[in-house]
Amino acid sequence: MRTQIRILVVDDFEPFRRFERLALLAHNQLRIIGECSDGDEAIQKAEELKPDLILLDISLPTLNGIEAARRIRQVSPSSKILFVSENRSVDITEAALHTGAGGYLVKSDAARELLPAVEAILKGEGFISASLCSSPSPRPYTQTGVKAPVTALELARNHAVAFYSDDLHLLDDVTRFIGVALKAGNAAMVVATDSHRDNLLLRLQAFGLDIGTAIQEGRYIAADAADTLSTFVVNGMPDAARFMESCGTLILTAAKAAQGQHPRVAVFAEDVHLLWELGNPEALIQVEQLCNKLAKLYDVDILCGYSLGSVVRGMDDHIFQRICAEHSAVYSY
Fold this sequence. Notes:
By secondary structure, the chain is an alpha/beta fold. The protein contains 13 helices and 14 strands. The chain has a 6-stranded parallel β-sheet, sandwiched between helices.
């Protein structure tokens, strides 16, 4: 790469912008010349700054990243674009690449793939995250026609994480996640605080569910996050055997009550948030790793929730990066 590659970072989630900034600033050849959080501003800054590379999210306020990329191609045609998004839809990925972008990086892969992606695109090779390809490692794609390995996308996303700015967004999202599963005849398990469990019951009823019947059938299981932690945390760290026995038993119980030929269990868990709140990041990372094992053993979709607004000190960049790396999808609200 030539000296001083000028980069514009576009993402509406400040902690992720901070992660990108810290990752790139470790290399003297890469210089961030601007940051912005919405599509309209991205176009303005691209026209004004003419960056060599733009790291561009898709889900942006005012104007989505795909439309912003089309307009950026007009006002700054020499700028290379790398989409950095957690959206794994085949249609969205293809639409993004058809803008003439150099590549598509999945956010939860960024810890290990951001720099290789930047290097590939600056060399004109193009890049698509390994998790979107049948290949076991990150691979470039041919930009002729801008449509190569996208047809081989793998859409497995059974262990996701969401970072919430407030309880309203958290409850809205969890209501949809659990509600859709129950309406489909599947089972659901919620490991949350007292207030979240109580509020969720009301919201699920408003969602059109007979939640009382779901509880009687055993398709809806709710547990206290702190009590659940006490079943498998020993001396401040999770005991793997206790975790798998405790959580596995609950999942199997819910799965037996689920309806349909191929029942699944939707699990929302914020016990990991409690570990972060207690200042025990190593324990929460181990729990996230154990959740990956659960996802491989059972037909389960896990959503881990972190309420960023509840802790004044905020989340350390390194911890945020490690949490993202343990998940198949990352969301922020």
